[in-house]
Amino acid sequence: MVICHGQPEFLAKNEIGRQAGFTFLGLMFAVAIAGIALAGTGALWQMESRREKEKELLFIGEEYRRAIGSYYDKSPGAVKQFPNKLEDLLQDKRYPNPTHHLRRLYRDPMTADGEWELIRLEGRIMGVASRSSDKPIKVAGFSADQGDFEGAGSYTEWRFISSGGGQLANANAGAQAGGAPSSPER
User: Fold this and answer.
1) pTM here?
2) Domain boundaries, the chain
3) For residue range 54-87, what is the model confidence (pLDDT) as tens digits?
């Protein structure tokens, strides 16, 4: 005679199958919640990364503005000149002992290739601007030198132009009135 202790074998298998279904469903729910959380974190991280690049653009642009102004202000003789190329800011050979207006050439942090739009006046560089057409995150709260950046529709409108000389003031007035002080160069 066969005595059965506990549940029959076919009942035990069905119960294990039902429990495994609930465990699988719970696991899928947990994975979905984790995916949503990671997607939100990714979007936040991307926004913070853009903010950091934007801060870097403002810093680097000001470095170029300052260096171009220094090059212009320290021109030998009566005629003030802007640099022909950005490399002239690294080593100004107009003097017996070369002057360094900039320690190194910086890349545009907003573009993949790092190239700047060069703003020229009579063939010489008077400023730089990013070539990125992305819309800026920061739209207000700029310094006095960057007041014209407020409300800009793209980073290309953030123009870091040296403030040296009266000739430059006339070029800036023309640029703000809708004209361009020069043709952009890359």
Assistant:
1) 0.70
2) 56-176
3) 999 999 999 999 999 999 999 888 889 999 999 9
